[in-house]
Amino acid sequence: MRLVLDTNVWLDWLVFDDPSIAPIKAAVEAKRAEVFIDVACEAELERALGYDFGRKRTLDAAGRAACLALCRSVALRIDSPAPEAERAQLPACRDPDDQKFLEAALAARAAFLVTKDRALLDLARRVAHFRIVAPEAFEKADASRSLSSSEAKGSG
Fold this sequence. Notes:
Elements: E1 2-5, H1 7-16, H2 22-29, E2 34-37, H3 39-48, H4 61-74, E3 75-77, H5 84-87, H6 99-108, E4 112-114, H7 118-121, E5 131-133, H8 135-154
Parallel strand pairs: 1-2, 1-4, 2-3, 4-5
Helix pairs in contact: 1-3
């Protein structure tokens, strides 16, 4: 399954090692999921990695470079945007800076846009092409897909 992660989810993966991201990491490691990123989303991540996170979490240049290298090793690049006619069907996010994540998910033909951002989560019922979920909801969706897959394999 294809995923797009917003910047906060990437930071939870790369900087904070947040336990809520563990199911996403596991799905990627088990090759049940592929993560996609485009130039605009990666540029925002690169800027965010320079923020002061406090409590010994602020990254020096080497730490930022290591995080970006890990992101690039995990994520597949989205090379071209979805056609304009398809992008026009997306709802407008109330935070214009977050529109890029909707467009990336569409271009990647993602099953999920994983986010903690309220402006994006509020659009979940208005997007038909992919599901917008918080990391915790992804874990439930992935578990149900894994269960469905194992049941299908067992019934053959």
